[in-house]
Amino acid sequence: MTTFLSFYQTIGPALTLLVLFTFLLAGAVKGVIGLGLPTIAMGLLGLAMSPAQAAALLIVPSTVTNLWQLAIGGHLQALLKRLWPLLLMIFVGTLVGSRWLGMSSGAWAVHALGAALLAYAAVGLWLPPFSLKPRQEKWLGPLCGGVTGLVTAATGVFVIPAVPYLGALDLDRDERVQALGLSFTVSTVALAIGLAGQDALGGEALGASLLVLAPALLGMLFGQWLRQRISAQLFKRCFFIGMALLGAHLMING
Question: Where along the chain do its domains lie?
Answer without folding.
Answer: 2-253
